[in-house]
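Q: Sequence in, structure out?
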Amino acid sequence: MAGDIGGTNSRLALFDSENLSQPVFTRIYPSGEYESLGVILDRFLDEVRRDFGAGLPRRAGLGIAGPVEGSHAVVTNLPWRVDADQLVARLGMEKVVLLNDFAAVAHAVPALGPGDLHQLGGGPPQPGHPMVVLGAGTGLGQGFLIPMENGFRVVSSEGGHSDYPPRTPQEIRLLAYLSGKFGRVSCERVVSGPGLVNIYGFLKEEEGMEESPDLAREISLGDPAAVISRRGLEGVDPICDRALDLFCSGYGSLAGNLALTVLAKGGVYLAGGIAAKILPRLESGGFRHSFENKGRFGGFLQTVPVFLITQPQPGLMGAALAASRDEPPPGTHAF
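A: Exactly. Output:
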């Protein structure tokens, strides 16, 4: 069994131990509607028995959107504390592995094939060199793969909560606007789904860009980030178009910073729920320009490939791979 446990949704899947690239049974549960992860897992296993007719899985790997320390984890945007030993007893399994959600994605990266990736510029990845995993969704996940003698060490990160670094006069004004709302401004206040909405609010309230009545009505009735990104891609609203440009530029700049941090010749891999939905804008130039615009190291970054992960559920795949190993995999906890 594998899980991708986030503040919005908890995705659970059952895998055949002989094929960990595709689940045989999946379910999605709204996380906020349940008092604990244990309750969701109980329901999933009941549905496995009832709807799939399978026996209980022996092992589980759970990617958690939040910090993980050994057998304990906290879900950042929910009042959940997760204990692997308690889950083993509750579920009757032989092993439950907890790992950060982006560490789970990172575990999947070496197993991805060409059909699971879409390249966004740069040269070929260099085998045996560090890799970065990055993804904007409800929050901003990060992780790293560091080469070792027999593979890679997965290093978890909470770098999405590091300070937001503005680069232009407009981004400095954006920082001031967000500081007024939140006090301290982290990267995920800008590069995430809620971050896109923050950028939109800045353009409307501080930069004086017009919001049409039709746009305001659609935002009030739906998912604001989805509305802004869709209408930005369609080019029907200048404010949405500009918000998406600022978002992609910030995303690219952050990805370039992380690539420099670990000299990621093995590539930067984009996961999360947003990148695939805005692929045309990521390809249009602003993302890659900001990725490479690093002064004396611009030439180096021109060689670093960026890949959009097109595999539907890399977090589930990575969690299943982590649980399948007889020894606890490197990088199953945060540092």
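Residues 2-106+313-324 form a domain with the Nucleotidyltransferase; domain 5 fold (CATH 3.30.420.40).
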